[in-house]
Design brief:
Order of helices and strands: HEHEHEHEHHEEEHEHEHHEHEH
CATH superfamily: Luciferase-like domain
Strand content: 15-25%
Shape: globular
Helix content: 40-55%
Radius of gyration: 20 Å
CATH topology: TIM Barrel
Number of helices: 12
Number of strands: 11
CATH architecture: Alpha-Beta Barrel
Largest sheet: 8 strands, parallel, barrel
CATH class: Alpha Beta
Number of domains: 1
Strand order of the largest sheet: 1-2-3-4-7-8-9-11
Length: about 350
């Protein structure tokens, strides 16, 4: 378990990476790796991140053939056995379509296996395939999330729970086991752009994880304000509030090199992601140049460019966590590994030093 000294050491800014385990073709070769190979690479990336000194490794949840991970706690448990210190987080758990009791048991088990390193980032999900797959009505999209997150918090706080809700069978003095190594498994809510979701995270006293994938990051400032205001009104102390930023990231020695190398993969990702979402959209080089410009949220560039973007967002949000998604669009593993190295050795130390000097 992380001790107080270790937590204080990185109190300025935590850094990590996450994956959604998409199975996209390499735009240069047209080849798509297997789900098995993708999982092997994810575990290897976690080992590299742990050895490099990053703080977090996240794995997302999808229930589709074009993604390799449907069970984040299983994958994170495998990672826990080949890493030593890196914290392990779901990015995200589709909380509307998972039983909170099973979720708590799975992550409490992960927490024991990892010696207190488990965390959960919960979201409603960009895709909806899990609703019919697990027998839930899409009309209850938001209500399911609200009920499930409140029940999860109740399970986390008590070894025995009596509870009744709308969407699952009641609990009568139910034993909630096992108990995690940590007193409470840290819980975050992932928010893409909805002020109501940010306010709910504040009201419930969870962390707020912003998915900032493009545009001017200043447009997310009202979400952070709504989060902190709702938390204050609910009586949560400011010091317990946590804000994190997640974003697509590619780092190379120079910004021009980063853009030249990453554009084919990002355009590829953009095309197949929009196809998955039922949209017909492509990305031109001009579109990409705009998305990757210095004042926008896409983290593509030299280490200095990434440092400047992280620090600019820190001035806006005062966040304590940055998690980069690096392995999209069929990007070869060796480029992902290089990005992890640059994030850990060239970006993270400078950002921490700059924040500590403020």
């Amino acid at each position: 378990m992380l001790d107080v000294k270790q937590q204080d050491e990185h109190s300025g800014m935590e850094f990590g990476i996450y994956t959604l385990a998409d199975l996209g073709p390499d735009p240069h070769t047209g080849k798509t790796i297997s789900a098995q190979k993708r999982l092997e690479e994810i575990i290897e990336a976690a080992k590299i991140a742990d050895q490099a000194g990053l703080d977090l490794f996240g794995v997302g949840e999808h229930h589709r053939l074009d993604y390799a991970v449907s069970a984040p706690p299983v994958v994170l448990s495998a990672i826990s056995q080949v890493t030593k210190r890196i914290r392990l987080i779901s990015t995200t758990t589709v909380l509307s379509t998972v039983d909170p009791v099973r979720l708590f048991e799975d992550f409490a088990t992960l927490d024991l296996l990892s010696n207190g390193r488990a965390e959960i980032m919960a979201g409603r999900g960009a895709f909806i395939e899990s609703f019919p797959l697990f027998g839930y009505d899409l009309e209850n999209y938001d209500d399911l999330f609200e009920e499930n997150i409140k029940l999860f918090q109740e399970l986390s706080a008590n070894e025995r729970v009596t509870w009744k809700g709308r969407f699952r069978s009641p609990l009568y003095n139910a034993e909630i086991a096992p108990r995690p190594a940590q007193k409470n498994i840290p819980l975050w809510v992932g928010v893409g752009g909805t002020p109501e979701s940010a306010a709910r995270a504040g009201r419930l006293g969870t962390g707020l994880a912003l998915a900032i994938l493009g545009g001017d990051p200043i447009r997310f400032k009202p979400l952070v304000d709504a989060y902190r205001q709702a938390a204050g009104e609910a009586g949560h102390a400011p010091e317990v509030l946590k804000v994190g930023v997640t974003g697509h990231t590619y780092i190379a020695e120079t910004t021009q090199k980063a853009k030249e190398e990453f554009f084919p993969y990002y355009a590829n990702y953009w095309e197949y992601f929009n196809f998955q979402m039922g949209r017909d959209a492509s990305m031109s080089r001009a579109d990409f140049e705009q998305l990757a410009s210095p004042e926008t949220a896409l983290f593509v560039g030299s280490p200095q460019q990434i440092i400047e973007k992280v620090l600019r967002q820190y001035e806006l949000f005062g966040h304590k966590r940055f998690i980069a998604q690096m392995d999209i669009g069929g990007l070869p593993f060796e480029k992902v590994a290089k990005g992890i190295e640059l994030l850990a050795t060239k970006v993270m130390p400078v950002v921490r030093r700059e924040i500590g000097a403020k």
